[in-house]
Amino acid sequence: MSDSQIKPQLSFGQALAGFKNLPNWLQSMINATSGMLILLLVWWIGGILISANPDTEAFAAFAPEATFSALWYLIETGSIWETIYSSLSRIISGLFWGVVIGVPTGVLVGYFLMFRQIANMPFQFLRMISPLAWMPIAVLAFETWDSAIVFLLAMATIWPIVFGTAHGVQRIDPNWFQVARNLGADGYQMLRRVIMPAIAQDVFAGIRLAIGVAWVVLVPAEYLGVTSGLGYAINDARDTLEYDTLAAVVVVIGVIGYLLDFIAVTLIKRYSWHVE
Fold it and tell me: For the CA atoms of the chain, what is the radius of gyration?
């Protein structure tokens, strides 16, 4: 093998070794940036293919350039902020009820064997029903469209939180309960001092899954009679054939969803614990 064939290999190896020697945060940033650039490249190529095809050229506004122009217009005019506020308020309300109902129920399921045996089958049955399947019931049961949407989001968030919390309670070392009883802990102290700190990581992991499900359910849920929100904005842009605006709203949904997931991951790391 000649020197000219060896040098490129050595150069690549040196570059790889140099990359591995970079700080972890810098490696993560480079990898994340590379992934997003690849995604943008695929999107850009898709836009070119759509524009070049006579059957799909009417949808050329889905391309990155038109999308980001429409996104900048929405930001500049300020119209996107009220849309985001409406959707976030519904998500937060639905998540609130999911936590209020899901965490106590999960503690009961995880702590009491009899309750777990009684509740397991009906809970598994209800969990497998799509949250959107409750839409006709929600429309009949609630006076306002907003309340119906919050109900659908609550149904989407309850089950990941219930099962995540129950799993966390079941993982607690039984010796912890015994020690707490020996020290004279009552039920409230057991819950506050032992159970809740031990299951915090699992609760936030369940909330993270709940946010993902709720964020997916939000868009079709806002196709109901409301006149605000990201789902409504997508439906309205589709009806008016403003495909660049539609794509811009999709980008906003992705960005907000990522930020919500990032917050949940941060909380999981904050409340994670390890046994040495």
Answer: 25
Q: DSSP characters for the chain?
A: --HHHHHHHHHHHHHHHHHHTS-HHHHHHHHHHHHHHHHHHHHHHHHHHHHH-TTTGGGGGGSHHHHHHHHHHHHHHTHHHHHHHHHHHHHHHHHHHHHHHHHHHHHHHHH-HHHHHHHHHHHHHHHTS-GGGGHHHHHHH-SSHHHHHHHHHHHHHHHHHHHHHHHHHHTS-HHHHHHHHHTT--HHHIIIIIIHHHHHHHHHHHHHHHHHHHHHHHHHHTTSS-S-SHHHHHHHHHHTT-HHHHHHHHHHHHHHHHHHHHHHHHHHHHT-----
Q: What is the pLDDT of residues 176-212, one digit of tens each?
A: 888 888 888 777 788 888 888 888 888 998 999 999 9
C-beta atoms surrounding 205 within 10 Å: 23
The CATH H-level (homologous superfamily) assignment of domain 68-271 is MetI-like (1.10.3720.10)
Q: Where in the chain is the domain with CATH 1.10.3720.10?
A: 68-271
